[in-house]
Every structure is written in C-alpha cells, then in structure tokens.
C-alpha cells in the first residue's frame, strides 16, 4: 500500500511535467508560425500590392522594387539575431520571444494600414521599407531564441523530436500564407485584391500575433538563475566559442541555400526552366511542402536514436551527391508526379538537417551565449546564402549557365560536410547532454572549454 501511495504522485508529476513541456513547445512554436506566416505573406501577395506603393509603370519594375524591399528583410536578420540573442541571454528567453512577436505584430499591422503611393507619394515605399525592416529584425531574433527555448525545455533523450517542431511551424507559416492567398483568390476578384484585399492577410497576421503573445506570456523561463550574467549575450563571451560559431556558420550556409533552393525557388524553376504550367507548379509545391512539414518530427526523433552528428553527415554528404542530378532531371521534366517525387526526395535528404536545425546549434553553445550564438550564426548564413538563393540562380540562368548554380549549391553542401565532420559529437561534448567540452574537442586549449 505504501509503495502504491509513493508511486502515484510520481506518475502524476511526470504526466504534469510532460503536459507543461508540450504546452511550452506549443507556445513557443505558435509564435514561430506567426512570424514566418507574416514574413511570407509579403512575398505571396506582392503581385497585388506592388502597384499600390510604387509609381505607375510596368509590372516587372514594380515587382523588382518590391523584391528589393523583401531582400532588405533578410539582411536585417543578423541585427535581429544579435539584439534578441543578447536579450534572451541576459534577460531571459521568454522576454525575448514576447518582444519579437510584438514587433512582428506591429510590422504586419503597419503594412495593413499603410497609405498608398497615390495618397502620400514617395513616403509610401519608404514606410513599407521601414515596416519590412521591423519584420526582418523580428524574424531574425525569433529563430535563435525559439530554437534555444525548445532545446532547453525538451526532455533529455527526446530533444531532437521536440526541437523539430520549429521547422514544422516554419514550413507551416509558408503553407498558411499560401492557403490565405488561395482562399482570397477564390472569393475575391483580381481588382478587389489589388484595391484592398491584399491588406487582409496582414491584419490576420497581426491578430494571430496577439494570440501567440498570450500563449508566450505564460511560458516558463528556462534560463539558468544566478551566476555571473555580466558577460552573458556579449561578443566578448561569444568570441571564446568562435570555433563552434564557425562550424555552425559553415553547415548552416549549405542548409539555408539548399532549403530555399528546393522550396521558395523551386516553383519558379519548374515554370521558367521546366516550362510547367503555373497552377500545376503551385499545386505540386503545396503538396510537397505538406509532406515536408509532416516528416520533420520523424527526422528529429531519428537524431535522438542515431545522434545529431550522424544526421548532419547524412544531410551534407547525400546532399552534395544529389543536387546536380536532381536539378538536371527536374529541369527537363513536365510531369507533376515525377516532379513531386524528385523534389520530395531532395527535401527528405535536407530534412536530416532541418529536423534538428535548432537543437544541433544549441548544443554547441553554453547557456550564457546560446541564443546569441544560435541566432547570429543562423541569421548571417541565412541572409548571405539563403536570402540570395533565388537571385543567384536567376543570375546564372540569365548568363546562360544555369547548371553552374547547381554546382554552387553542391559546393556549399560540401563545405557543410566538412563542418559536419569537424563538429564535436553533442552526445559527448555538447552543452545540453554532454560534458560541455566543445571548444576542447575543436582543438582549443582546455582552459577555454569551461570559460
């Protein structure tokens, strides 16, 4: 009897703890979903709102100007990674996540209510640029903080599975933006969308951000209490872990470039190179993204069994071998079923990385600079290689050497493979489950290992 009495509270405590952790993942990932939905709404609805913010002229010039402002959002990400990484490491993960989702809400609401070029002239594109800069800073800070939070709140032995939901919601944000576009296209005319309908998705994003804010305010803080916080979130402290930072930067470059190549750029590649119908390409990519989103937890859970280092070696090694043949085959194919299979195959390989993207970085940095190390390395690589993927691909195509882009992606994945080989095994040397000797494993002097 005494044994059963003693066991019952323990079982109840375990169940309650599991529920708290699940709610923490839901709360943090809900904000991630909103952040990426808002960010991609801009890209998906640009065709309709571009005429509202730029002088009358041909559609191409208006879209180019709109795309330029979209690119600025990418290049604001490193600033966001630094600002919010510092906030998260000094003031707490929850505080950082609350502020970032508030900024995204403000950016989306601002775009939704902005006056047009016809009303205020050149002030319209300037205001649009400012709103996108706010969104860029916000989404730049979101990745590192949410990745850090998810890795810290997850149960040991299941960290990969829990952390995989970061990319589930990242891809989900793209799909949600696409779904809103398809829905509005079904219920509104093109003229209505150009006149005022394009504002609706930004209002939806602002409202969703309020819901995410409510969920995040109730999250438990994971940052360690006490200790010396003077150097937390500073470049001085991060510099002690520069080897880990460079490794993360290297394999993130290949991951970001391959991700954007097989997701956002792929639809244009199917239309421009394979000569596939636009609607067919859109439908194909929607189904591909649905499958891609659904398989992320599988690869996160797999990493808990085989180890994050093995995941990274498989992603970068297989990726290096697959890009040229897959892209070549896709460029000469008009069958949507074959395209679906080939693109899904590519994304399955990339899932070895995206399924653990946040956790594999978080394990290489100590608590005091974890959010800064993860967020800044990701933002720099993402802005430099992910954000420019489409531009570089189209530049090579325009130059008459489209296949060179395939080798460019292959080269970055080869660099990621080298980084994955060098990367210490997080199970033995990581800061979450290992002994924390990452720098020593990378060849640093022992005194820096626990700095």
From TrEMBL:
Cellular component, GO annotation: plasma membrane
Domain of life: Bacteria
Membrane topology term: Multi-pass membrane protein
Occurrences of domain Major facilitator superfamily (MFS) profile (ranges): 24-428
Subcellular location: Cell inner membrane
Keyword annotations from UniProtKB, A to Z: Cell inner membrane, Cell membrane, Membrane, Symport, Transmembrane, Transmembrane helix, Transport
tRNA processing in keyword set: no
Transmembrane segment boundaries: 37-54, 66-85, 97-117, 123-144, 165-184, 196-215, 244-262, 282-300, 312-331, 337-360, 372-393, 405-423
Main location: membrane
Classification via PROSITE patterns: MFS, SUGAR_TRANSPORT_2
GO molecular function, one term: symporter activity
InterPro entries reported in the protein's UniProt record: H+-coupled_symporters, MFS, MFS_dom, MFS_trans_sf, Sugar_transporter_CS
Keyword check for rRNA-binding: no
Family: Belongs to the major facilitator superfamily. Metabolite:H+ Symporter (MHS) family (TC 2.A.1.6) family.
Known function: Uptake of alpha-ketoglutarate across the boundary membrane with the concomitant import of a cation (symport system).
PANTHER family to which the protein is assigned, alphabetical: ALPHA-KETOGLUTARATE PERMEASE
Name of the protein described by the UniProt record: Alpha-ketoglutarate permease
Lineage: Bacteria, Pseudomonadati, Pseudomonadota, Alphaproteobacteria, Hyphomicrobiales
